[in-house]
Give the backbone structure.
Amino acid sequence: MKLNSDIVNAYRVLDGQELTESEAMALTRIAGNDILDLVSLANKVRDKFAPKFIACSIINAKSGVCSQNCKFCAQSGCHHTGVESYPLLSPEAILESARRIYDLGVRSYGIVTSGFGYLEADDEFNRILAAMDLLRKELPELKLCLSLGILSETTARLLAEHGAWRYNMNLQTNPDRYAELISDTHSIVAKIQTIRHLQKHGVSICCGGIFGLGESWEDRVKMAFACRDLDADGIPLNVLLPIEGTPLEDRPVMDAADAAKAFAIFRLVNPTKMIKFAAGRETVMKDFQGLLMLAGMNSMITGGYLTTRGRGVEEDRNFLYQLTIFNENA
Ligand code: SF4
């Protein structure tokens, strides 16, 4: 059977050439069996340009009562989701959780807090810096990631000085439609400015988003190119788990075939980057998580998410090992 001509064209990526937005849009119209050919190409591109599989873990270090109104989020104080709320954990509690996942072999660990962010180094921010200092002292090999919301240049610099390796600041969707699809209590401009502050101080960027919000294929393609233009080193891709009490509670769950196309297109647009299957892997995509990992992913979050459970680290480690069998260079 002949390969779809848009996929044949996309094989150029294996030679180091870039796709245009209109070429990526053509790939969104692929259907049926051709989707597996697209998945296969994405896997070849990943195997050539980003061969190692890496797992990371996160801790929800401060949960709930957020002043922002992100439509997908269980932790927004604007929605009624019944999520557990607690103030910032102590540095010792953060260390204890980090040590648990370190002992299981995970070497990237993210401290995540709910809320707008930190424009000033207030008491709470300084307690995060103290936690970072403790982690660096006790677990010096651990790569320290943070996801704390919007920063000023001062707070970005302080995180860099205290050993931040990578910072997560998701675009979530097409930046042009952020206010409509995600939130109007803060701006995408402030988020992009935060990324620039961090890059100026040498912090690597993790920047991706969510599928299944009600966005179009054009929005997905625009997000893929926006991540490329921001030179994000890590790109976490989430599949929405509609949460009761949020404005998106009635959204239909995304089809696995659409997720496979979206993941593969992200890999073709960002061939060398760490692209991570984040939330939705076990809870939404269930039986299809292996197929989706082979659609160009080379990373995943293990050991649970912010407000939903995941799978155990041991089980995920075996899963990653099984994935390497499909690849020459992993
Ligand atoms: S995503 Fe972050 S900023 Fe938005 S509502 Fe949730 S915790 Fe708040």
Remarks:
- Residues 47 and 328 are 7 Å apart (CA to CA).
- The two ends are 29 Å apart (CA to CA).
